Amino acid sequence: MRYDSDTMKENVHLKALKEYIANTKEILSLSSPMLAGIENDEDYRLKLLSSFREIGVLSQRNNEILDEHFFPLVLDEKPSGKEVREALRTFNELLLDSTAMENIDQPLLMLIAEKLLSDAERGEDERELILALDGMVPTAYIMWNLTTRLAPVLMDCYRYRDMGMDAAKRLIALADKERFLQLPDDECRQLVLINTRYVRCMFSWEDKEDRAACNESDLQMMRHALELAKDPFYREQIPDDAFWDSHVFRTLQYLADFTEDCNSHGFTKEQLRELNDYAKQLFAFLSKHSELQDRCPFVEQQLYRLRNAYLSEELSLDAYREALAALILRRDPEDFSTRGLYTYYVLPWEYILSLDPKHLSPEETQTLQVIYDAMSSYAYRMPKTGVLSFMLTMICNILKRFIAVPDGISFPDLCLSLMAAMHPPTYIHSIGVADIALFLATHLLEKNPAPLVGIAGTADVSEVPAQRESVLNFVHEAARLHDIGKLFIVETIITYGRRLIDDEFALIREHPAAGAALLKTHPETAPYAEASLYHHRWFDNSRGYPEPSETDVIRYPALNALVEISDCIDAATDAVGRNYKQGKDLSAVLEELRAERGTHYAPYLVDLFDDPAVFEGVERLITEGRDENYRKTYHLLKSL
Questions:
Q1: What angle is formed at CA 258 by the lines to CA 104 and CA 131, rounded to 5 degrees?
Q2: Domain range holding 284?
Q3: What pLDDT, on the 0 to 100 scale, is given for residue 24?
Q4: What is the pTM (predicted TM-score) of this model?
């Protein structure tokens, strides 16, 4: 194709990139199809298969778009022309609502931000530099938010934090009055002032070695942001009352939210009293500015009011808990909008932090039951774009602090229910791996029980058949939970068919360790953590991830080998949620297993397939059994 001008190039690139966004939104919707119009489990199975065939077509087109219209632009080391920069900036704005922190494809945002900033720093246009710095701040925050879910497993999150803070500091320096007068235009002046107020709500300004000093620095920064609104100099430069109303509102909102996670930042009593005053100011300000109330819904206002009153000792702990519980129980059970996120996750998170897990009242137990029952329901029906990333952070927080409820949903079942709600293919894969692992373990126990010693507390070979049920249950549960770490990176694994960039590979490689860390937080699942950690490690420890280390402690090598080979068999024979190609037949997979016998796969497991009954049994599991798992998923989702 030939272009007659740079403008034509821009139009072609932007048109294609807009198509990419439309395709990606459709992919997000198709990945977890709603049950409306689906009358039975067989229809659901067919719908899921049909949806993923559609995803395959859309993904192929998206790859073509990115390879022709995106990667050549952002990976080009030469400075971009104005038209290309505008196309990338428009694409960035369509991918990201920086005010609401809603986004569609996070890693692409980072590539755009890095490219625009690199170009701007090599030029002499201050306006371009300010726009690029302003784009880097929310983009770095998005990646920081995603990767901090994996900390301390993945420490790369601090790289994003530092990138965002460096950009923010450079912008804030421009608020100096002498420099402010020299800024190119009103848009640049507004962007600089905006960054003075919202940067602190996004990042830890410094490492928290001296928490008290950092907290005071944070407060001082926000006090300064409020003072800007009163300063005649800045008012004269930007004579826009609506801008300043928004500035004051957002600054007060961020101050009221400094006490998030029940004061996890550790503000002092004196500072908490000051923050409570700001929360009251926010409440009063909104009562006078009804046009801003849609930007801070009633439930959000109530959380700020209640939490700050409690932390400043104006409200007792019991009264605080009761008030939060009342808001949770009073919510509209059919509100699955973006705003519903507050009553389904944010309020419940703060409520859980206020509880004493060892001394729960009947009312508190009942409220927990309501919270857990509703989590998957909202996750399934949530808006398909916008809230996913923030919701995942809340989900991970709640799961880490899960409190068991008598006769309520178990921690493993809640994890898997959430996975089914957000990404049915991973749920189907997980229970399919469990089926295969259980089947292979059953035959191994009968033919060669020695490798199973140690599982379920067995001390020698004679105890393995004697504790058959316990051993097999252990294998099945470990396999069922092997991929639970993918809950931390759902927005990455649903980037269907798109060429993955380095940052995404790094995230995906951490899901085994993230899953193991989550499972270790609860006694009932801690024994299964090892299988999660090592399900991508080769049998001979020569390859896979996490990479072998001298500190590795492997208690259940046979369990890990069972999960690994079952994971590979299920993945290789299934097209749904994978590469959208026809899955391999089991005979082809068995050739690969035998070729890597003793290296990738445990010899004693590969040898099981010498028995035709084993081959036939696994083949049933990946055909009829997988179809049955589609149906199980339908009934689970229908119950939400």
A1: 45
A2: 204-292
A3: 85
A4: 0.91
